[in-house]
From TrEMBL:
InterPro entries: Beta_hexosaminidase_sua/sub, GH, Glyco_hydro_20_cat, Hex-like_dom2, HEX_bac_N. Keywords: Glycosidase, Hydrolase. Residues 477-496 are annotated as: Disordered. It catalyses: Hydrolysis of terminal non-reducing N-acetyl-D-hexosamine residues in N-acetyl-beta-D-hexosaminides. This is beta-N-acetylhexosaminidase. SUPFAM superfamilies: (Trans)glycosidases, beta-N-acetylhexosaminidase-like domain. Its EC number is 3.2.1.52. CDD domains: GH20_chitobiase-like (cd06563). It comes from Actinophytocola gossypii. It holds the Pfam family Glyco_hydro_20b.
Amino acid sequence: MTSLDGLLPRPVRVRPATGTYRFTSDRVPSHVSTVVSIDPAIPREGYRVSITPDGVTTAAADPAGAFHAETTLRQLLGPDAYRAANIHDGPWELPCGEIEDHPRFRWRGCLLDVARHFMPKAGVFRFLDLMAAHRLNVLHLHLTDDQGWRIEVPEYPRLTEVGSWRHGSWVGRQPDGTTEHDGRPHGGYYTTDDLREIVAYAADRHVTVVPEVDVPGHSQAAIAAYPWLGVTGAALEVRTGWGVSDNLLSPTDETLDFYRRVLTHVASVFPSEVICVGGDEVPVTQWEASPVARDRAAELGLPSVTGLHGWFVGRLSAHLATLGRRTLAWDEVLDTGEVARDTIVGAWRGEDLGVRAATAGHDVLMCPEQEVYLDHRQSDHPDEPIPVGFHRTLSDVYAYDPAPPTVPVERVLGAQAQVWTEHLDSQRRVDYAAFPRLAAFAEVVWSPPAGRSFAEFERRLDRHHLPRLDALGVEYRPRSGPHPWQTRPGVPGRVR
């Protein structure tokens, strides 16, 4: 052990940009090494930390690697190092030794849906802190949907004046015959400065924020703000229910120009190389009934209005290319007959779609709902709150491999866990759904499967990591089942 008592001031100095302990201060004795150097021989985002009785020396591939090294040192200090203020009693100590590590994938992401239930800015900052603590490096912000528009676009103020709030929300699980609404208005949006602040906060933690503006489906909030964007031109309200809406964007030049301008603004706020345009769940019922849509399909030489899906996404993808950006789209675009080769495909409907996209030459982001949708239920017991989707336990998530033998591994950028919030209406519910499964996912995308053991992960989780989450104030799902206040409303007892 090497003691840091006397090396760290009291109260412990915290680096504002990262929230991690820094090992330099005016009180560090001159004989103690606190060297951080860049070594290009270390793999991307990797690091090597040497801890001796004389101090700590770090070599890193790049600044991200140096940050991950700090994260490791913070872990070694114990749970007290994760509290917002110093309550540690006694000397700070680190075990002597050498640690060398680097990530398996370059994209280690998590989608946070702030469209269905808005998360205030402070909550996004907290979520970024939790991502950084787990060495996740991409926050995919789902910013627009039928139920809400969360991006200020100064040129189109009604997007937030009208589209950012709804009259109420479905409660319970649909579609199961439940039609109850809570009758409580819900809303919120991020100003341009808010979003720039989120981007900067994330960058300080070596997290890239990838924004999503979903088209041509999942667009009812935008149509509610500007009805001419829709196929029928009829006035709509921001949707209060979940599921897939039939209300699509109209395939006109005016609608495309509107979204080009929106994406130009988005690109001015988000420096990410990648911008997501959605492209998922596009029922063509309205297009089939629309003379405008049928005429546009005929004009373009398309065999049916179904082809408008790929055409619409393709036009916006081409616009993003003029802005120096790359498109991410959900795997339905593979069925459209028109998808640019450099489009990244998010394989959400199943791993086989990721294999198909990679085989066709696309870079792939693995995010299959059967494996990594963290809003899905963690137990089949009726106490589980809002038991939707596939049953995926902690061990299931840990066992997932984003690069199966059937996929061209060089095409797999990485993987992404998804936190959809139809049924997660508060920070407490997000905590419950995400953790500790997100901790398991973080290890899956950081470490290769060889040498990983769920039994060993469980031991570390119980002994070390859950106490860290406790110190961070994360209201995760206990291993034995939910606390009484975490159970399904109206259902007493616990998951057995």
